[in-house]
């Protein structure tokens, strides 16, 4: 079966320490969280164009959001802080025009 995951989805699966088969089973949830992260970045004032380009900094922020939402409860604050820090820096670097 051909790999149907995007590069970002594969990076999320690896960050979550999931096997490819487990990642495939959770792909819909991962995709929903990726879209929620994008929406949150845009809502916070990051340029939509930069969010859609998915540069490495945007990808890392999205991965941290996915980790925040899909990891154990005791890790939530760690990834929340990382996501908020990255979101703030992205907003300052790539503000909405």
Descriptive tags:
97 residues, mainly alpha, 0% strand
- Termini Cα gap: 43 Å
Arithmetic mean of pLDDT:
94
Mind summarizing the main beta sheet?
Answer: none
Shape verdict? globular
Structural class: mainly alpha
The share of residues in helices is over 70%
What radius of gyration results from the CA coordinates? 13 Å
Uncertain runs are none
Measured by DSSP, the beta-strand proportion falls in: under 5%
The succession of helices and strands, N to C, reads: HHHHHH
Our count of helices gives 6
Q: Quick one: how many beta strands? A: 0
How would you describe this protein?
The protein is an all-alpha fold and 97 residues long. It has 6 helices and no strands. It has helices at 7-15, 20-25, 27-43, 48-53, 56-70, 76-93. Helix 3 (27-43) packs across helix 5 and helix 5 packs antiparallel against helix 6.
């Amino acid at each position: 079966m051909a790999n149907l995951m995007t590069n970002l989805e594969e990076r999320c699966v690896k960050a979550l320490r999931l096997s490819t088969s487990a990642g495939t089973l959770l792909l819909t949830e991962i995709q929903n969280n990726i879209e929620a992260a994008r929406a949150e970045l845009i809502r916070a004032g990051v340029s939509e164009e930069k969010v859609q380009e998915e540069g490495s900094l945007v990808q890392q922020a999205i991965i941290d959001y996915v980790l925040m939402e899909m990891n154990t409860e005791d890790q939530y604050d760690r990834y929340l802080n990382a996501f908020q820090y990255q979101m703030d820096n992205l907003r300052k670097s790539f503000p909405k025009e």
